[in-house]
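Escalated from tier 1: iron/sulfur cluster holo job.
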Amino acid sequence: MSEELHQVAPVPGGRRADLRADCERCFALCCVAPAFSASADFAIDKDAGQPCPNLQADFRCAIHDRLRPQGFPGCAVFDCFGAGQKVAQHTFDGQDWRSAPRIAAQMFEVFPIMRQLHELLWHLSEALTLPPARPLHGELRLALDETERLSQGSPDDLADLDVAAHRQRGNALLVEASELARAGVRRRRIDHRGADLIGWHLKGADLRGANLRGARLIGANLAGADLRSADLTGVDLRGADLSGADLSDSIFLTQSQLDAATGDSATTLPPSVTRPAHWPASRPAPQGPRRQAGSRRSRAGS
Ligand code: SF4
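Tier 2 regenerated the structure:
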C-alpha cells in the first residue's frame, strides 16, 4: 500500500529482512480487508472486505503516486511488516480473493492476525540486536521461533489463534528488553508511557532513554530533540516534527511511524529504517512567528 514501502531496503538484524512489505507478491489485502473511516488518513468510508474504489483489477492502486494529495496519507504510511505476501503466498498458496472468492472472507480474517504476528517478529528481532538485552536473548529467541511457527499455520489455525494473548506474552519480554537497553542511559527516568503529548513543544528536549511507549505525540514539535535510546514502541508520531532530531539508537521505531512524521536531512535515524521520500532535504525557512503548540507543557522532556 505504501509508496515508500515498495522500495525494499536491506535491514540490519537478520530475520527482519523478511518483514518488509512486498506489494508485488500480495493481492492488495490492505486495500480490501480493513474498514476505513473518512478522516485525515482516508478520504472515504469503506466497509471491511470491500475493495477500495481506487484498487485496479491488477491489484495496483490507481493513485499510488499521489496518495497524500488525494487524501490517503494513511495508505502511504501503512506497513504490513510482510504479512500481506505471507498470507497471499504461503497461507493461501498463491490464490487470490478475486479468482477464488470462496477464500476471500477467511483471507481477510487472517490478514490482520498475520500482521500482528509479523509486527511482533519485527520487534523481537530488534530486541535480539540490543547488546544490553543479552540476558534475555534465550527467551527472545524462543518467542521469535514460536511466533514464526504460528505464522506458518493453516488458515484455520490462524483464524483460531488467540493472537492478543500471544502478543501480550511477547510484549512482556519486549518491555524487559527495553528496560535493560535503557538502564545505562536513563539519567532522569523520563516516563511518558501512554501519555497524551499531542501538540507538545519538545524542541531540543533531552529525551535520551525516555520511555514513550504508546504515547501520542501527534503534531508535536520534536525538532532537534535527542531521542537516542528512547523506547518508541507504538508512539503516534503523525505530523510530528522530527527535523534535526537524533533517533539514531531509538528502540522499536518502525518505518510506518517515521513515514507519518516529518523530518529533514538532519534527522538521524537508526539503520533499520529509511528516510521517508516525502521529507524535504532541509527544513523550510520559517515564515513568521512559529506556533509552539502546548508550550506551557514544554518542560515535559527537559
Ligand atoms: S487508495 Fe490505493 S493504496 Fe489506499 S486502499 Fe485504495 S487502492 Fe489501496
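The radius of gyration is 20 Å.
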